[in-house]
Amino acid sequence: MFKDLYRKLTITNALILITFLLIFSYSIVGFSNAAFDASAKNALTGRLNKIIEIVLRYNSLEFTLNDETTKPEYNERTHIDYIIWDKNLKLVNLSTIQEDLVSKAYQNALEVSKTKGSSYNTVNISGAKYRLYTVYFRMANGDGVVAQVYQSREIDDLIIRQLFLVIMAIGTFSAVILIFISSHLAKKSLEPVRKSYESQKEFIADASHELRTPLTIIKTTAELLSMKENETIGENEKWLNNIQSETENMSRLIQSLLTLAQADNNQIPVKTEPVNLSELIKDLCGKFELVAREKEIAFDSIISENVQVIGDKDKLNQLLVILLDNAMKYTPEKGTITATLMHTSDKAVITVKDSGMGVKDEDKKRIFERFYRVDKARSREQGGAGLGLSIANWIVREHKGKIWVESEENKGSSFIVELPKKRKI
What DSSP state is assigned to residue 88? Predict the structure, then answer.
């Protein structure tokens, strides 16, 4: 599925990038051509106005402009020639002789003479292109005269062709690069989708597996009880307790799954109100201390007074319960658990330390993932499904804090939470 999607995205991205490159390339050529035309028209207009000025000043069609070809600054690309036609459209003056061009210019002069206006166009003479500007005007004696100026497009067209070839060469090379870039972009854009899809598959598989075990136990126990019709409830108390225990495990698992599903869809509101973190931790430590005493675990707490944070009291309580319960599960008899609350000017720091089995380095990166358990067999025995730390991680993120674990194998673990003390309510 992802291979086909990757291929389609690569092709689509490549086509979009190549289309953009072609549009950009043709735009450069088009704008360059338009700039040359605009510049040439301004030059032709200036030359033509100078010719008309001379004709009107001296009332004569016979004149000679300075030969620009002998000047040091002469530029063939910008050189402009001229043709003058009298009232009868007889050629009376021109700067250079080009028979084919004069013939073509005459046709334009004839049309302008009829309309008594002007025209600006490009004429093609034996494969060479010229810009031709033709204007009709009257002399002081009332005679109508047609003046024309023209300029070769050859050098401009050569520059445009070379520019186009350079752009296309660069474009071809760029197209190959763009295909690799589009491939990389497609892969990168699909990566979050792929990870999400794989996580969803893993989530469903793990949830199914976790639900299958208690369901199998309940089903097997129920079938066993159905064969003991003559026995009393008291005689089957063990089997009934199994059903009750597995039902509670399923209930906790389903509730945790529901919490994570709602969290993924932002359906769980998180309050922002002042919370006395010191009192909250003291209260929970008192409760867990009783449980620890029954398990012969030494429980100690170091709580700073009057530490206030902005957050959701119920969610923070749930976070602390998860961390303390997790420490209780993995701390053996005669072990120790220490809960501390310290603070600075801008954050509160909660640490839950145990002397349990510890966490391997390779497990530290995944310990907050859903359904991930360091000791799967022991977690199963104690009713754990590997969702508690995922929920804890979500609660910390919602409070704009950080959570991490510091641990050495067989030397215990310390779960550390940093929460900002100031947040907008």
Answer: T
Out of 3.30.450, 1.10.4160, 4.10.950, 2.60.40, the CATH code matching 2-161 is 3.30.450
On the 0-12 / 13-18 / 19+ scale of CB atoms within 10 A, 158 is: exposed
H or E element that contains 293: helix 277-294
Does the structure show a pLDDT above 70 at 1? no
Lowest mean pLDDT among 26-40, 42-56, 190-204, 263-277: 190-204
Q: Domain spanning 271-420: which CATH class is it, in words?
A: alpha beta
Query: 309 CB contacts (<8 Å, ≥6 apart)?
Result: 274, 275, 277, 316, 348, 399, 419, 420, 421, 423
Q: What is the mean pLDDT of residues 234-248?
A: 77
CB 25 within 8 A of CB 168: yes
Reduced to 3 states (helix: H, G, I; strand: E, B; else coil), residue 149 is strand
Averaged confidence pLDDT in the chain: 81
What pLDDT was estimated at residue 70? 43
Checking 16-25 for CB contacts under 8 A at 24+ apart, the result is: 16/182, 17/178, 17/181, 17/182, 18/175, 18/178, 21/171, 21/174, 21/175, 21/178, 22/171, 25/164, 25/167, 25/168, 25/171
High-pLDDT (> 90) share of the chain, %? 19
Which segments within 291-365 are labelled E, that is strand? 298-303, 308-311, 336-343, 347-354
Nearest Cα residue to 242 out of 215, 212, 209, 218: 218
Report pLDDT digits (tens) over 149-188. 998 888 888 888 888 888 878 877 877 887 777 777 777 7
Best CA proximity match to 250, nearest among 287, 212, 302: 212
Task: Give me the residue spans of the domains in the chain.
Answer: 2-161, 271-420
Instruction: For residue 121, give the H/E element and its range.
Output: strand 118-125
pLDDT for 380 equals 46
CA distances from 5 to 162, 176, 191, 192, 193 (A): 40, 21, 12, 13, 11
Residue type, position 335, single letter: G
* CB of 319 closer than 8 Å to CB of 393: no
Q: Which of 401, 302, 298 is nearest to 351 (CA)?
A: 302
With residue 220 as reference, give the H or E element that holds it: helix 154-226
pLDDT score, position 77: 57
Question: 131 with 40: CB under 8 angstroms?
Answer: yes
Q: Band of the pLDDT at 379, cuts 50, 70, 90?
A: very low
How far is Cα 94 from Cα 65, in angstroms, rounded to an integer?
Answer: 10
